[in-house]
Design brief:
The chain is α/β, with parallel strands linked by helices. It has one domain: Aminopeptidase. Helices cover 36% and strands 18% of the residues.
């Protein structure tokens, strides 16, 4: 099963800002925690639309999810409002979808688990909603967008600065996905890197594996993201290949 996690905003687009928080930073932390939680289940491949603080257009996010034929697209956001009083959790599917369809069923599982977590920490459930968001409209697989509290609200902002809360919210998202797709928990947590082979090493030698070379950096970043999702350390290096 292939899951694309979409940390909202990034790079030149900070998203909402308030109470010492920047949405693009919170969503990236949350996405990494959701990935960590999902890796506790068998037969999953998790990709992120961005791994760092980079600008990724909505069209690029959609294109990535469609190109890799994801089974589900989960976009993570944090809410904000001019009035500091609103707070809590809400989730979205596209406005054209039926309440009884497959996407609605997946959203229901994610929403239930995450709303329960918010309530446990004293923040309300604002309910499931629908909207004509680009990432919900243009993706060709079930797509859900979650708004994880209001950083404009002092109480929610305090929670969003708490690692314990963020981990609980991430675990709730992962449990919802697992329940919706019938995923099986691993009996043992996977090692982030494979065991090294039993072989003789040579001093002062380093062996490098390259898995791709591209003219466009975006393609290289996309492949690196897939390698990281599989547990490998991956870097993108720019090389001058011009002739003499």
């Amino acid at each position: 099963m292939r899951i694309v996690l979409d940390p909202g905003h990034g790079g030149m687009d900070p998203g909402a800002v308030g109470n010492g928080l920047v949405e693009k930073e919170v969503t990236l932390v949350l996405a990494r925690l959701v990935r960590e939680a999902l890796q506790r289940y068998e037969s999953v491949e998790i990709l992120l639309t961005r791994e760092d603080d980079v600008t990724v257009s909505l069209a690029e996010r959609v294109r990535m999810a469609n190109e890799v034929a994801a089974d589900v697209f989960l976009s993570l956001h944090v809410n904000a409002f001019s009035d500091p009083r609103p707070r809590g959790f809400e989730s979205y599917i596209h406005s054209s979808l039926a309440d009884t369809g497959r996407t609605a069923q997946i959203r229901a599982a994610i929403h239930q688990r995450t709303a329960e977590t918010f309530l446990r920490f004293g923040s309300p459930d604002r309910g499931p909603k629908k909207a004509d968001f680009t990432v919900l409209r243009e993706t060709r697989m079930p797509a859900v967008l979650t708004e994880n509290g209001f950083l404009s609200n002092p109480e929610d902002a305090r929670l969003l600065k708490d690692d314990r809360f963020l981990r609980a919210v991430a675990d709730a998202h992962a449990r919802g996905v697992a329940e919706a797709f019938g995923l099986t928990a691993r009996t043992k947590a996977p090692s982030p890197f494979p065991d090294p082979p039993e072989a003789h090493t040579r001093p002062n030698k380093l062996y490098i594996v390259q898995i791709g070379a591209f003219r466009e950096r975006a393609n290289a970043e996309r492949l690196a993201a897939r390698a990281r999702a599989c547990g490998f350390e991956a870097i993108v290096k720019e090389v001058d290949v011009g002739g003499a």
